[in-house]
């Protein structure tokens, strides 16, 4: 069973939004992790699904 990228993105966004509402300082970590992941996918496109 695989999860489509289209279905995964809104789910991750929803979870991140709820966590940011609960803990606003978490925003820094979420943005940093997102930027690192996007940067790694940009440098190594073969790692992307």
Cα-atom radius of gyration: 13 Å
Shape: flat
Derived structural class: mainly alpha
Tally of individual helices? 2
Largest sheet descriptor? none
Helix content: over 70%
3D architecture notes:
The longest helix has 18 residues, at 5-22. It is flat and about 35 Å long. It contains two helices and no strands. It has helices at residues 5-22, 26-43. Helices cover 73% and strands 0% of the residues. By secondary structure, it is mainly α. The model has no long low-confidence stretch (mean pLDDT 79). The protein has a domain at 22-49.
Features of the shown structure:
single chain, 49 residues, mainly alpha, 2 helices, 73% helix, flat
Topology:
Blueprint: H1 5-22, H2 26-43
Q: Could you give a short description of this structure?
A:
With 49 residues, this protein is mainly alpha-helical. The chain has two helices and no strands.
């Amino acid at each position: 069973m695989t999860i489509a990228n289209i279905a995964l993105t809104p789910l991750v966004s929803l979870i991140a939004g709820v966590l940011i509402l609960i803990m606003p300082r978490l925003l820094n970590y979420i943005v940093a992790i997102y930027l690192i992941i996007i940067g790694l996918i940009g440098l190594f496109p073969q790692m992307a699904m």
